[in-house]
Amino acid sequence: MASPSAGTRRQSNAQSEFVSKGAWKILTAGAKSARKPALAAVAYFGKGASKLLPLPPGSHLVVDASEHAVKKGQTHPNDLKHLQRGGVVIFSSPSLHAKVFIFENVAFIGSTNVSKRSSKILTEAVVKTSDRAVVRSAKTFVKRLCLDEVGPDRLDKLQKLYRPPQLPSGGASQQERSRLPSLRLAQLRLIDAPEGSEATEEKGLKIARSRRKKKRGYIVDNFWWPGKCPYYEDDKVIQVTEYANGQRLIDAPADVIHTRPWRGRDGREVTFVYLELPDVRRVSLNTLAKRLGRGAKKNLYKNGIVRDEDFAEKLLANWNQL
Question: Is 7 a member of any domain?
């Protein structure tokens, strides 16, 4: 019976997976289900982090537990102490920026700090792998950082220095909570702008052209909106234009680069909205609805901000603008 030559490579059963959605659900589940001590090196460990990463007894956890990180609210000593009481050994590495988690024979390497902000607001991604060589290297990496053990007394002293993280306006904005840009649908018809507004429209067009950021493959377009304008600079707008025959054509997502109000002598108010629009062919509403799937047609008739993130993601992806 012939034996494999020295140069023959055995097929590996290792699997790797890129995770961009629900990263923290997978990490939390991995920590909860681990039957053996885990290894983790993650820069920041915020308030509530012990629930996100419930490591089993005997695990080694390396974080940035420096006074600077604690005073900034990036690391919460009491959450570290909670794990410590459960048998987790805590270490500090002030220069740490990596995010590496190893549960038994699976490693997760990515962008995730252990915080509510990471789990609920930020767009995170990790690579999950069972490749033996990678897992072994990840374990070695974490173990080499286990130099400065942090005891309970030191955690108590650090807790006195802790200050909650400072976020603008007391917290994250609605746009920051979303991983997508502010996206709006504008339902339009082909109607001439009010008489007398021509000079205002032309002046606004000159300003918009001077603000262009992407000259190749883009054009400057505009529409007018009656009354108070719901569109602002840096919004991303998709124009849905209805024609006399009832057909609706949809433009690619465009960026608002300027708005200019006009008021007539009769008190009528409109706002001209100027867009930096990709110079690509428009698509009919019916065609796009079929591409996007169930429920899309109803959503494409709506006006204003797109609140359904999955639908917004599909819309942007149709023009590869994610």
Answer: no
Taking only the tens place, the pLDDT of each residue in 109-142 is 999 999 998 988 888 999 999 999 999 999 999 9
Q: In this structure, what CATH number is given to the domain that contains residue 145? A: 3.30.870.10
* CB neighbour list of residue 196: distance below 8 Å, 6 or more residues apart: 264, 265
Tell me the pairing of strands 269-278 and 254-263: antiparallel
The two three-digit tokens of residue 202, written as one number: 């032309």
Q: Are residue 196 and residue 298 in the same domain, yes or no?
A: yes
Query: In whole angstroms, what is the distance from residue 320 CA to residue 314 CA?
Result: 9
| CB 69 within 8 Å of CB 94 | yes
CA distance 154 to 161: 11
Token pair of 77 as six digits: 């000593």
Position 11 scores a pLDDT of 44
Strand ranges inside 123-268, DSSP E? 126-129, 183-189, 218-226, 236-242, 248-250, 254-263
**Domain closes at, from 170, 191, 212:** 170
Tens of pLDDT, residue by residue over 56-67, are: 999 999 999 999
